[in-house]
Specification:
It is built from 14 helices and nine strands. By secondary structure, it is an alpha/beta fold. It has one domain: Aldolase class I (TIM Barrel, Alpha-Beta Barrel), CATH 3.20.20.70. Helix 4 (86-98) links the parallel strand 2 and strand 3 (103-108). It is globular. The structure holds S-adenosylmethionine and FE2/S2 (inorganic) cluster. Residues 69-70, 107, 109-110, 138-140, 160-161, 163, 202, 231, 233-234, 236, 273, 308-309 line the site of S-adenosylmethionine (SAM).
Length: 347
């Protein structure tokens, strides 16, 4: 039965595909509570009650890709496009440093304006001014040479969600010029180079099944990343998936708990999307085994334009507000935000 699969996962950190499917399909509120209590135990063993924060700088919403789910896809003519200058970005870092951030996440669409040369210069400038901070890049699929050059310039980590392992499902979510094989190869290249790497997927994306989620679990077990970013799919009104249902809080929390037991030392964010589908989503994510939050550090003027999905939270808030808001939220469930680079123990 399902409870014995959770015990097996807790002990052996791995399951067969059939066991994953049974565990995902057969979830109940009681089973979830049991899972979350074990997930917290594992999380406390390695990370205590600390919550790591990452300052997220959304520096461009130009994108050459056309992912069907994403609000900043190139076909969305209603998106108001912007890009931050290097000076803008450095100002975000300055403010973030003062607020206690020791990791900056540079995220953006795949924007040709930001050539390797510009990205490298930016990394150098940030590292020169904030040598005690980690830089995480999240700028999509690049050649191994480019990844190597960013790494040599000082980038420490890279987030590239694999989105879905199953090839057919990948094609249902992306135009045909994008390939799951290429994306997965990017993740392996990033690991080879020496980055701390994060993969991940959306929970409840259109056409997703328990079998596909099981395949995601097997893939992630094999890749053994340092970080895993998951959040609910949320429709955006100007995309082909405008009329699709959002992923649920309940399944997202359940997947967070399963991931914590599968890779106990992984860094696991309670994402903004989770906070968007439920007012206490991020707190509940922490209680399900997550140990990272990524408040927004982007200038308030551009926040409403980095709209990947509808009703995104924090688009009207100042960085300091978000930082303090999250501190209070984490405290409310018995955890504390720490001023730390927050490197992964999963090495
Ligand atoms: N361009 C980079 C990339 O592709 O990795 C980074 C930015 S991309 C917008 C960041 C992530 O947003 C994607 O990996 C995807 O999982 C998530 N995302 C996009 N649209 C979403 C939606 N409608 N609901 C939830 N998450 C979404
Ligand atoms: Fe932005 Fe709460 S995290 S206002």
């Amino acid at each position: 039965n399902q409870k014995s699969f959770i015990d097996k996962l807790h002990k052996e950190h791995t399951l067969t595909k059939e066991e994953w499917i049974t565990l995902i399909e057969g979830r109940t509120p009681e089973l979830s509570e049991y899972l979350f209590s074990l997930a917290r135990k594992e999380r406390h063993r390695y990370y205590g009650h600390d919550v790591y924060v990452r300052g997220l700088i959304e520096f461009t919403n130009y994108c050459k890709n056309d992912c069907l789910y994403c609000g900043i896809r190139k076909s969305n003519g209603n998106a108001h496009r912007y890009r931050l200058s290097e000076e803008d970005i450095l100002n975000c870092c300055k403010e973030g440093y003062g607020l206690g951030f020791r990791t900056f996440v540079l995220q953006g669409g795949e924007d040709g304006y930001y050539t390797d040369e510009r990205i490298i210069h930016l990394i150098r400038m940030i590292k020169e001014q904030y040598p005690d901070c980690a830089i995480t890049l999240s700028i999509g699929e690049k050649s191994k040479e480019s990844y190597q050059a960013y790494f040599d310039a000082g980038a420490d980590r890279y987030l590239l969600r694999h989105e879905t392992y199953n090839h057919e499902h990948y094609r249902q979510l992306h135009p045909s010029n994008l390939s799951p094989v290429h994306r997965q190869q990017c993740l392996r290249n990033l690991k080879d180079i020496g980055y701390q790497v994060g993969c991940g997927f959306m929970v409840g994306s259109p056409y997703q099944t328990a079998e596909y989620l099981a395949e995601d679990m097997l893939f992630m077990k094999e890749l053994n990343p340092h970080m895993i970013g998951i959040g609910p799919f949320i429709p955006h009104h100007d995309t082909p998936f405008a009329g699709e249902a959002a992923g649920t809080l309940e399944l997202t929390l359940y997947m967070l708990g399963l991931i914590r037991l599968m890779i106990p030392k992984v860094l696991l964010p309670a994402t903004t999307a989770l906070g968007t589908i439920h007012p206490k989503g991020r707190e509940l994510g922490i209680l399900a085994g997550a140990n990272v939050v990524m408040p927004n550090l982007s200038p308030t003027e551009v926040r409403k334009d980095y709209l990947l999905y509808d009703n995104k939270i924090c688009t009207g808030d100042e960085s300091a507000q978000c930082r303090h808001c999250l501190e209070m939220r984490m405290k409310s469930v018995g955890y504390q935000v720490v001023t730390d680079r927050g490197d992964s123990l999963n090495i």
